[in-house]
Amino acid sequence: MTPQTLKRDDAPCAGTAVDPVTLTVIEKGLQHVCTEMDLVHEKTSFSPIISEGYDRANGIYHRQDGRMIAQGELGLPIFLGQLAVTTNTVIQSRNDLADGDIVVMNDPYLGGSHLMDVRMVRPFFYKGRLWAYLSNVGHWRDTGGSVPGGFATKSTEIHQEGLRIPPIKLVKAGRIEDDVLQLILNNIRVPNDSLGDVKAQIAALGAGAKRLTSLLDRYGEEVVDKAISELEVRSERLMRSHIETIPDGTWRAAAEVDSDGIVNAPLTIHVNVEVAGSDIRVDFQGSSEPCAGPLNTVWATTLSAVYIALKHVFPDVPMNAGCFRPITVEKPRGTFLYAEYPRPTAGSAAEVSQRIIEAILLALAPAIPDKIFAPPAGTSGNLCLGGVDPETGETYVMYYFSGGGYGGWYDGDGISNGCATIGISKSQPVEVLEQRYPIIFDHYSLRDGSGGAGKFRGGLGVAYRMKLLRGTAAASFMMDHGRQGPPGTLGGQPGSPNEIVVSRGGTAEIPEHLSKGEGYVLRPGDWIDVKTPGGGGYGDPSDRDPGLAEDDGKRGHL
C-alpha cells in the first residue's frame, strides 16, 4: 500500500448538538473500545507483569495533536498523559504512515518514562481517511541493559539501562517488519516471551480498530466527532467547577526521594500549586537539580503525575483532553523532574511520579481537607531477578511489584495493601511466580503496625520474603520511602518506612541506599526480605473513635 498523506481536518463540527442519550452511548462506546483493547492485551500477553499485574494501557487519541479521546478503565493512570505526548511525537515525526502501519518506540525523552514501557501507535483510517490514533503501552520485563529487568540503580546514562527505540515502523501495511523485530529481540534477555508480548500489543490495536470501525459505522463520523468535542467541553466544565471549590492562593509543599542510587542523599521536590478561580498552575521551582543516577524524570511522566494527583482529588471527572485544560504545568527545566538526554530515567515512572503526587496532596490538604487523603506508601516496590533456571536451562527475568498502605482520609482509614497511586494494577499471585521461576515465598502478609496513627489510620503495608531455590540469580530493586515513611496529614502520624534486608550465605545486610540496590548475586537459600510502607495518618490521633482504637489493638494494627 502506498503511504497516504495524513490529512488532519479538524474544523469544529457545525450543526445540532448530540442528544444526551446518544452522547452517553458514544462516550461508553469509546471507553468500551479501549477496555476491550486492554483485555486483549492482558489475555494474550506472555509476561505475568501484564497478564496478571495489568501493567499496560490502551487508548484513542486525536488525529490532530494526539490529545486523549478515551483510555481504557483498566489502563494504568500514569500512562494517561504519557501516551498523549507519545502520539503527538509520532504525529510530528512520521508523515509517512498508512493504514495498517504500527510505530514502536520507548525513548523516554519522546513521551515515555523508563525503557521497559514500550509503546505502539497505529494510525486508524476510516473510509480511507485518517480518523484517529490507537496507542498502547506495555511494561516489558526486559529491554537489555546492565541488569535483568532494567531497574539499574547505578546507571549514570540512558545507554546503560537498555535498548532505546525511536519512533520506527514495526508493522508496515499489516505485516511485521522482521528486521526491526529481530533487532529488538536480540537485545532482550527473554526474547521468546517478549515476542508474545509484542504480538499481544499488536493484537490489542487490531481489536481497537475493529471496534472503533463498528462504532463509526453505527453512528457516523460527524456524530461521533461532535460527541468527542462535546465530551471534552463537559469534562473541562466539571473540572473547572471542582477547582473553583479550592480557595484562591498558592499552596506549597515538599516531598523527598530517598536517593538517586549513586549519591546517598535525598532529592527534594518543591511544588507550588497556584489556584485562581477555575484555573490551576503548578510549578516545581526549587526542586533538586538533575541527578547522577536513574531517578531523573522525563517531562511526560512529570506531567502525568500532576494529572493523576488532581484526578485522585476529583475522581468523577471523565478522562479526556478536556479534563486537563484548566491545568497548566510549567516545565521544570534545570531540575531532576525534566530529564534530558543522556540522563538515566529507570526510576522516573514507578517512583518519582509518586513523590510528585505526594507533594501535591500535601500542598492541597490545608486548602481542601475534606477532599484529601494522607500520602500513601508511594512506592511500586520494584524487585527484579534474572538468571538461568538449571532445571529447564532457560533464561528468565522476573519483575515484581508489591502493594502498600493508603493514607487515612477525612471519612475513614486507609486501604491496606493498595496498589501504587499511579496505577490500578495488582500484585502478581505468588503461586504464579513460584510456578514460573526458581523461587519460593517463605511468607506473605499484611505488615502489622505500619499504618500511621491519626483520627483515621493509614492502611497497612505488606511483608514478604522471597527465597531462591536453585541456580544463581542477579537481583536488583528500586523502591522508595526508606529514609522516612509517608507523612501524615493535618496532625496525623507518618506510616512505617520501607525496609529491605538481603541475606546471602547466611549473612543479612541492609542496602547502603536503604530502598535501592543492584549487583546482588543470590544462590540457593539466599533471600530478600521486604516490608513496604504503611500509609500516613489523617488528623490528630487523640480524636480517634475509642471503639476503633480498641479494635486496632485487637487486630494488631497498632
What distinguishing features does this structure have?
558 residues, alpha+beta, globular, disordered N terminus
Short description:
This protein is an alpha+beta fold.
Task: Characterize the biggest β-sheet.
Answer: 7 strands, antiparallel
Relative strand content:
15-25%
Please, what is the average pLDDT? 95
How many domains? The number is: 2
SSE topology string: HHEEHEEEEEHHHEEEHEHEEHEEEEEEEH
How do the strands of the widest beta sheet line up side by side? 2-1-5-4-3-6-7
Count of helix runs:
10
Cα(first) to Cα(last) distance is: 66 Å
The helicity comes to 25-40%
Task: Work out the oligomeric state of the chains in this entry.
Answer: single chain
Residue runs with pLDDT of under 50 for 5 or more positions:
1-15
The secondary-structure class comes to: alpha+beta
Structure description:
This protein has helices spanning 20-44, 48-51, 79-93, 178-185, 191-219, 221-243, 299-313, 348-364, 430-436, 546-555; strands spanning 56-62, 68-71, 102-105, 117-126, 129-139, 168-172, 175-176, 249-257, 267-276, 279-283, 327-329, 382-389, 394-400, 439-446, 462-468, 473-478, 499-504, 507-509, 516-522, 527-531. By secondary structure, it is of the alpha+beta class. It folds into two domains: 20-236, no CATH class; 373-558, no CATH class. Strand 12 and strand 13 form a beta hairpin. The chain is globular, with a radius of gyration of 23 Å. The chain starts with 19 loop residues before the first helix and ends with a helix. Residues 1-15 have low confidence and may be disordered.
